[in-house]
Sequence to fold (735 residues):
Amino acid sequence: MKYIDEYRDGRLAKDIALQITAAANPAHSYHFMEFCGGHTHAISRYGLEDLLPSNVRMIHGPGCPVCVLPIGRIDAAIALAMRPEITLCTYGDLMRVPGSNGSSLLKAKAAGGDIRMVYSTLDALRIAEAEPDREVVFFAIGFETTTPPTALALRFAIDKGLRNFSIFCNHVLTPAAIQNILESPDVRKLGTVKIDGFIGPAHVSTVIGTEPYEFFAEEFQKPVVVAGFEPLDVIQAILMLVRQVNDGRHEVENQYIRAVTAFGNEKAQAEVANFFELRESFEWRGLGEVPYGALRLRPQYAIYDAEKRFGMVTPAAKDNPACECGAILRGVKKPADCKLFGTVCTPDTPMGSCMVSSEGACAAHWTYGRFREHAKAREAGRAVA
Amino acid sequence: MNVMMKTYRRKLDLKNGRVDLSHGAGGRAMGQLIEGIFHRAFDNEWLRAGNDQSAFTVPGGRMVMTTDGYVVSPLFFPGGNIGSLAVHGTINDIAMAGARPLYLSASFIIEEGFPLADLDRIAETMGAASREAGVPIITGDTKVVERGKADGVFISTAGVGMVPAGLDLRANAARPGDAVIVSGSIGDHGVAVMSKRENLEFDTDIVSDSAALHGLVAAMVEGGGQHIRLMRDPTRGGIAATLNEIANQSHIGFRIDEDAIPIKPEVAAACEFLGLDPLNVANEGKLVAVVAPEGKDRVFAAMRAHSLGGEAALIGHVVEDDNCFVQMATSFGGGRIVDWLSGEQLPRIC
Ligand code: SF4
Fold:
């Protein structure tokens, strides 16, 4: 554990927190968005907020691949899984994601759908090999990090001549989503939140490198610091962002040099490019249609594309209208601002996307941080009394 | 346990035989299975009497009874198997009332096709566990179901015990100011089992902490019983679930200190790798005790002096809180709450 402990050293963290407090100009407030659910999770789990001065606020972004998957895609997967010839392989997180009318893959499984939880694409391949009479579909989701393993699975399937294996592709792209947060029709509707900089995703960047954020930092004049998922990584990235804002800089900096390079893993990128192409538009739960925000299989691999192979349709489906995910994912509102938070919507009964995975903003706040509101309310109550 | 037909006895083929539906049909095969496996493994005077139940004399006083089903997968894991678990788990449920466990029962639901050798191994381990704990299995039941209707073997055990005079532990007894003590490192059992799950196998030296805790409890009661408010064994759901349960039942909150919670480095590393929180991971040989402040040192010392409590740690205290939150000061210097887990504990994907 030595390697891990170094990144969780409370004393070092306090030291960096003091540097942040010293660097942050009391006349300003600083708003930073951590895009990635991994960071949201780290911030909540280690209580990082308590270490920051009150004028430095973290906004939890949309970076959880489970959370941003629209209801229609879940409904489509359920419909597919209920077909008798199909075995649907999925990551465990997806099982509880609510589809329309209270449905979920978990309920579809209990109703007789052959849905199997896997831990990797290779598990799905193994099932396809072992059961040649079944049509095995892998429910592929995730950001740039999880796309190369899907590409690898396709490579294996081709090499082994597997004819009963296909992919339901829901891979999404980070830079497009960050762009959408700052610039989309919804932003005008929901109002904008001031964002002074971004913490860039760690694992995604090990694949794509820091380079794809350069355009973005330049175009929107916002600093980006790519950071690891350990709490010390995050707090150090915050210090780097504060310094950039103070200096009026908007650069892409790399806090995560132990794993991330400027150009990433070019071999993985090439393999992804071989199999996948951009979708002109793809719905993100909470964000709406994001142009060029997702991938699909190239036409020459259509037989491995479950959508084509089984004529899947993505039904139009709407989130609960009271759910404020859209505003929360953009940082315009906080989880506790939503009327459903903690009443009808909890991790056991998620209504919206942010409550589904432990990395969603609402779930992280519910699971680790909700005591803060109560503490504030109590303080206020005392002050009034 | 219904033992029948001692004639025409053919020896069970423990090496290659398999459980089939006849082993649950109440006929000779069933008697053979019970005799050849369970009686041999649990051997004691009550079972030898061969009744469907066992009678015993109860010394005067308060008695406790509990029952629990065991459906662990995989059945065999480092440090034990479903059999030892079924014995320890039920003994511990009794012990958490401060009681001395006296007798156990065991009920088996076996899937057709289950290898006799595995059943024998499970029963042997169970017998050994009950002998070591000094708590005999004095009655039981066997059912066999068709292939596919069970997952190998399910075991239910029930147990009875006597509460020492003057002791009355209750779930709603925690009071602000009370100390919270765990008896040792957490998460060992859950990680040991997960390390052997299909698709998840990873190398670790961690073995399950599965153990009978009544000896430790007796030492605690002796050391400062009047100061113990309540005890719980943090099995499924880990210490997170246990503390939340107590908080709700006693209508109080907890303040605990992450740095004070004993966790083995290998367990922490495995949890890290699987994306799990050790506070949610199951234990089978640990207890959490809430102790009045004036008695905490005595109870703590008694725990430390016992072999199963050598690594006992004071992890926090009870506070007033209408929300019943379990709050934790993180090792990183911030604060958070420790909540029940939602759904099943699953590894993260990204
Ligand atoms: S609390 Fe639930 S309903 Fe409200 S925004 Fe969050 S996920 Fe949506």
